[in-house]
Here is the input.
Amino acid sequence: MAENKVCVILDRMAKEYNKGCYPGRNSEGLNPEWEPDPFHVLIATILSQRTKDDNTRKASDNLFRKYDSIELIADADVDDVAKLIRPAGFPGQKAKGIVECCRRLRDEYGCKVPSETEELLKLPMVGRKTAACVRSYAMNLPSVCVDTHVHRISNLMGLVDTKNPEETEYALMAITPEDRWNDINRYIVRHGQVVCIPNHMRCQKCMVTDFCRYYAENHE
Here is the structure.
């Protein structure tokens, strides 16, 4: 039986990127002050919406240094939270959502982040990407987390032909063994940060060009 193409791609990336990355962090020289537990990953992933990775890191560092628990954020002043997370953009909207999310977690879930996708999706500011990131990075539950990097690179390479992240999620699930779902975001995101950079692809440094439709079509 032929090796699964996605698995071969992930194996090559794993050798290059070590542990990969999760929202606001990567494995290349950063020593996070907080661990990828459900609370931290949930809030950092909300912060990562519509912003760059470095901005997520700055905002999450600011927030967690002052409010490092569900209870503390639930009781925090929204304007103060907004000031702390300003680097991530949309501070008012995100601050309101994060505080309300933590209040819901405190009041309805006993300060515990739920593991079920359906329950996570009930929380403010939580969509399928955020739910999958929490399940994958913080709970080690099989989940395909599709952010802009994963959606763009999967289509660029020709692994999928999809129009939006949700389609990409299900398409990748169909062609990848379940025990490798968590690796998709971990390594493809890092690949998008250092090699397959938007509008500046460094194909000469890519370890998976033999699987890439874009490379085949643009390089002889």
